[in-house]
Each structure stands twice: as C-alpha cells, then as structure tokens.
Amino acid sequence: MIKRLFGTFGVRRTANDVLTPEFASRLAASYGSLIKGKVAIGGDTRTTTPMIKHAIIAGLMSSGCDVIDLGILPTPAVQYAVRNYYDGGIIVTASHNPPKYNGIKFVDKYGIGLGDADELAIEKMYFDGEPVRASWESIGNLFKNDKIIEEYIEEVLKRVDVEKIKKAKLKVVLDCGSGAGCFTAPIILRKLGCELITLNSQADGFFPGRDPEPIEANLKDLISAVKNLGADLGIAHDGDADRTICIDEKGNFVLGDKSFSLVEKRMLKEKNEEGLHKKANNIIVTTVATSTAIYDIADENNGEVIATAVGDLLVARKLMEENGLFGGEENGGLIFPDFVYGRDAALSAAKILEIIATENKKLSELVEELPVYYSEKMKCQCDDDKKQKIMNNIAEEVSKLGYDLDTTDGVKIFKKDGWVIIRPSGTEPIFRCFSESNSQKNATEMANWGISLIEKYKN
C-alpha cells in the first residue's frame, strides 16, 4: 500500500503551507490514539517549530495522552528520553532540509521511527476515520522536563574515555549550523578538554550562516577555519544534530562513509578485545547505499554486515532485532544501539575524538589507513508522482543489459568496476544517485550515467 503522508522517517512538508497547525494537530491526535500513554515532544531550532509543537501538544492531549515537553534539543536526545522513560515521542524537525520546511518524526517506545503498519494506521485514521477525542475530564496533562539535555550530555561522556581525550588536547572547530546541536555539542567538547572554536553555534531557525545540510559545498567557512587556525579537525552537524561530518587537519572533507568505517573499525576491535564481556554481537547494520569499505573492515575484524533499505529507522530496527553492535548510513549518521536507536551526532563526534586520541594519529592518517574507494553523489529534481514509473523503466532497461541488480531500495546496479544506486528520496521531490568505483573518473561517469537514466524517463 502506498503511503499518503509518510516518507523515509516521518512527515516533512513546507511549514504553514502544507504543514499547518491544523494538519499537525490532527496527525498528532491520530498518533496519540494509537499510543495512549505518555508522549515526549521536542524539536529543532526552526522558526516554525514552536507553532507546530504547540499544535501537536494540543492534538496529543485531545486524544487523552499526557505530554512531556522536552524543549529544543537534538533528535537523538528525544529518542534517548523516550527509550528510557516514555511510551512514545514526537520530534518537530526537518533535519537537513532548508528553513522553509519542517517535519514531524514519530517514534515508538524504543525511540525508533514507526514501522510501516503503524504509519499506515495513522494515515487511515487521519484521512478515513476520526482520532480518539477524550472527554473533557480525561484529556491529557502537560508536563515539562528540562533536565534531559543534561542527562543526555552526561550519558554521551560515559561512553568514551574522557581522560584520554583530555590528554590529547585537541583543537577543534565546531559548526553547529545554528541547529539543535548548539545546546549540546559545545558543552560536550569543552567537557572533553578540547580547545574549541565555534561557528554558527547560536540557535537561529533562519540558518543564516549556512544551509542545514552538512555537505562540502555548505562547509567552506569550516574548512577555511580548520586550515587557517591549525586545528586538529572540524566537526559539523545538521539541523537536528543527528549527523556528524568531519574535516581533517588539512581541510579535507571526510565523507560519511569514511567516518562510518573509522568508527566501525574501532567498535569491532573493542568487541574482539572484550570478547564475551560485551553483550552485543559483531553485527554491523547499514544500507544498500553505503561503501564496500564497510564490508572490507567487517571481514578484517570478525564482523558481519547486514544491509537494509535507506533510512536510519530501518537500520535502527534491524540493530535491535539482531542485537547488533553498530550501524549507520553514508551521510555521517552513526547509530550506537546501546545508547540510542537512531543517528547520534554527539556520540559520533566524541567517538571520533577518542579514536584520534587513542591512536595518537592525525585524522588524515587514520582515513588513509581505510580501504580506498572513490565515490560520487548527485541528485536531480523529480515530481513525486513520477518516481515509481521511472524506477520501473530503469530496472527494466538495465536488466536487459545484463547487469546484476539489487532492488532493496531503488535500483542498485553492479558493474565490474563498482556500483551505482538510483533511488527516489523519501523526503524531497528528488532522485539521488550514488556511485562507487576504483577511480574517481569511473565513479563520476557511473553517477552521470545514472542521472542520464533518470532524465531519460522523466518526460
């Protein structure tokens, strides 16, 4: 069944245009009708977040749910709170999308994004039925919990060797992108003893310093600052602080695949050293769009990789089902399942600092030790209603050419010198095309070929 509202994770729309208070309130009441319990709510720094959050609170209380307002804080902090204390949660965020967007992410009692069945049930109630409306004496109560940020910060610090990082005396430039990370990341890095320089670390929903998405084109100021100030590394977060991107000491943009590989290698080594003392097994979960390097590192360190469709909630759910050790995506979103069942920028950054301190090597040196693959990422506009037909046509054409395909998510085409994946975005009217090969030239050519296939069938 095709979903009418939900994308890869939650519902994202232009704010106060499609995503109005009325829309948000009814959708929240539909969710509350299923949860029937204590629901935590938090959000990012977008200008429309207070408006949408208040509408959601009203909808939840109307359905009989008690609501706990956590304030403005990172998405993983909300997921942490729900997993430990509440029956469900809602996060008001559009993550990396431009300022005019906002979104509503729903999570279950484990802090994981809802599964297909629950999303379809909410849509059915929203469009075809009526949410539960409690009688006047049974409407929910509203509470506040402003201590979760402090607890979240302390829990991050418990999961790394703080003293070892302090001794390394690392100089770090931090770019929070004016998002929710402003309330956590600077504090964590200072508690880790870093010499800290901040960029865009004032909360501002207009995102005046840069676009919320931490891609290389948006991080020119951070790259310049790292080089000019002689920093050991740069760290950038997206709007809701669930993704971390690094800049090495030379000013090189470190792809999310590399960060993933670096932390995966460390996690598996720690697991092998601790052996039976660690409850989780050696399973690494990622998506079909992630680098082959993830598999290479797993092979070298007694690990096993499971691939899912794209979406951090799918990775998180598989990690829970398999009692996995670690997981994530190629975009800098890393998941530590013993802490939060979702991408976590704060622990990702702390773990990378710990690796640099433990290995006593520059970030560029650590990256050079990883398996070498070359990648290209491209995207093109496409109306949502055309996406499925385009995918069907592409799959039909490339299968006739004799290529092996993986249709777990979009179409992943395997060629003798690498692969290319073509998939429609679940959050924007675009197609994404990622490729990987044994040279940059081949990777770029494959990505261009993928884009050409999309353009061929768009009209």
TrEMBL record:
<dbReference type="Pfam" id="PF00408">
    <property type="entry name" value="PGM_PMM_IV"/>
</dbReference>
<dbReference type="InterPro" id="IPR016066">
    <property type="entry name" value="A-D-PHexomutase_CS"/>
</dbReference>
<comment type="similarity">
    <text>Belongs to the phosphohexose mutase family.</text>
</comment>
<protein>
    <submittedName>
        <fullName>Phosphoglucosamine mutase</fullName>
        <ecNumber>5.4.2.10</ecNumber>
    </submittedName>
</protein>
<dbReference type="InterPro" id="IPR005846">
    <property type="entry name" value="A-D-PHexomutase_a/b/a-III"/>
</dbReference>
<dbReference type="Pfam" id="PF02880">
    <property type="entry name" value="PGM_PMM_III"/>
</dbReference>
<dbReference type="Pfam" id="PF02878">
    <property type="entry name" value="PGM_PMM_I"/>
</dbReference>
<feature type="domain" description="Alpha-D-phosphohexomutase alpha/beta/alpha">
    <location>
        <begin position="256"/>
        <end position="371"/>
    </location>
</feature>
<keyword id="KW-0479">Metal-binding</keyword>
<dbReference type="InterPro" id="IPR036900">
    <property type="entry name" value="A-D-PHexomutase_C_sf"/>
</dbReference>
<dbReference type="InterPro" id="IPR016055">
    <property type="entry name" value="A-D-PHexomutase_a/b/a-I/II/III"/>
</dbReference>
<dbReference type="GO" id="GO:0000287">
    <property type="term" value="F:magnesium ion binding"/>
</dbReference>
<keyword id="KW-0597">Phosphoprotein</keyword>
<dbReference type="InterPro" id="IPR024086">
    <property type="entry name" value="GlmM_arc-type"/>
</dbReference>
<dbReference type="GO" id="GO:0005975">
    <property type="term" value="P:carbohydrate metabolic process"/>
</dbReference>
<dbReference type="InterPro" id="IPR005845">
    <property type="entry name" value="A-D-PHexomutase_a/b/a-II"/>
</dbReference>
<feature type="domain" description="Alpha-D-phosphohexomutase C-terminal">
    <location>
        <begin position="378"/>
        <end position="447"/>
    </location>
</feature>
<dbReference type="InterPro" id="IPR005841">
    <property type="entry name" value="Alpha-D-phosphohexomutase_SF"/>
</dbReference>
<keyword id="KW-0413">Isomerase</keyword>
<dbReference type="GO" id="GO:0008966">
    <property type="term" value="F:phosphoglucosamine mutase activity"/>
</dbReference>
<feature type="domain" description="Alpha-D-phosphohexomutase alpha/beta/alpha">
    <location>
        <begin position="150"/>
        <end position="251"/>
    </location>
</feature>
<dbReference type="Pfam" id="PF02879">
    <property type="entry name" value="PGM_PMM_II"/>
</dbReference>
<dbReference type="InterPro" id="IPR005844">
    <property type="entry name" value="A-D-PHexomutase_a/b/a-I"/>
</dbReference>
<dbReference type="InterPro" id="IPR005843">
    <property type="entry name" value="A-D-PHexomutase_C"/>
</dbReference>
<keyword id="KW-0460">Magnesium</keyword>
<feature type="domain" description="Alpha-D-phosphohexomutase alpha/beta/alpha">
    <location>
        <begin position="4"/>
        <end position="129"/>
    </location>
</feature>
